[in-house]
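Kindly inspect this today.
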Amino acid sequence: MTYRVCFVCTGNICRSPMAESVFRARVREAGLHDLVEVDSAGTGGWHEGDGADPRTVAVLEEAGYESAHTARQFQPSWFARLDLVIALDSGHLRALRRLAPTPEDAAKVRLLRSYDAAAGDDLDVPDPYYGGLDGFEECLEMVGAASEGLLAAVREQVSGMNDSGTSVSDGDGTRAVRAGLPEPVKNEPTLPGPVFAAHFHLPGDVSGPYTYGRDENPTWNLLERAIGELEAPGREDVQTLTFASGMAATAAVLFSQVGAGDVVVLPDDGYQVLPLVRAQLEAYGVEVRTAPTGGDAQLDVLDGAKLLWLETPSNPGLDVCDIRRLTEAAHAQGALVAVDNTLATPLGQRPLELGADFAVASGTKQLTGHGDVLLGYVVGRHAEAMAAVRRWRKIVGAIPGPMEAWLAHRSIATLQLRVDRQCATALTVAEALRERPEVSGLRYPGLPDDPAHKVAAQQMRRYGSVVSFTLPTRARAERFLEALRLVDDATSFGSVRSTAERRGRWGGDPVPEGFIRFSVGAEDPEDLVADVLRALDESSE
């Protein structure tokens, strides 16, 4: 089990990165580096994504410490995974304890100099930002003096831990049910209700995450924690941001990571709004190249790209590409990789584990699964890149409503139940369709003879709830949809209620006129198959 310590100051560019570097060195010297994880953050987000102050770097390097650092803002959801939160002065102590979701979390916050027996009554480490280099040298001296006592305290905690303290939430169902929940508090609900607030009490200096409703909301924070636990279980180096829709999340990654003169590679068979995104990127001076998802064809146009965007399985054609192969090729030339994980869901595929830098999805679909919420999210493993995504969200205001965030979090608890049922039924429907002579172009990655199955089986744990196929004509497809009784003629996918539509009616997908995208719901498989076969029979006339 890992013991986690986080140092916190104001902007995370002076005192806390200095403490992080010094204490990490002490942990390494003590041989505890496999048991103790050390990081840092700031109560404010003004410097998020920046490196440490040059004077901090100079003082650390002069003393022989590591100086690499990327600033980030402390999030209340982190309390759940942290064992000790070290404040650099009493202002940070008060701010962090106000942020703590529970009294137990508040008790994790301690002042750094409280571990220095010679510190006296004044336990603050003064902020050196507005002074000269001597202030930074004094800060380093105080940090060093307190680190020995802190190390002794941490060593005692680590020696008392055993493997029985590790999380038992390893199964997909258990993880989904427990994802993002705060620590239990007597007389409080398991999942707190939505927080409706445009502004928050903010006396004195600006500090803490909850200042204005466009920036942060406690309901989002719990949802973001839940999604992060699903997309990257056990990973402590990831951040999650939620958005008002899947396209808001998509736009945030694309437009925050590239600018005029850069090259972006998109799939030419992806979601139908991508051509609009391409036009806007080109209007901003970005070169956009496209290639099909299947056969890893995007490799052929990758040279010089800054960002590679994958959509696998693709929507609506259900082609699959090799995420590991494409990611390795992109990283070899310095490009970032984002994967649209909407169709697979985190229970079907985890792009970050396959090497991608971002996992992006429309939570509108199967993640929430009830057809009543618009939502998007981005999960990323690079603090600087995610700081840019966060800044974009702040600029455009593409935030989820607290009610939508709460509904989404509530719905995640049943994700594994829904996904398993829907994926199993999707395979049954696909097998039934395969026997019909009027059906052509049948695609479902879970079928052993599907062109994408070999690659899909190497990177997917579940194959999704969408089946696609083509009927001979537009008229036949429309008669089929009209004859269905258990399936709604509607767009979108992933709901517990089955839907189907003729995708050609939108005009944005390169598909035949009789092409059907069929989203399998949670109905009894026997009933659904019977309805599909009956509708095929009735529509033949």
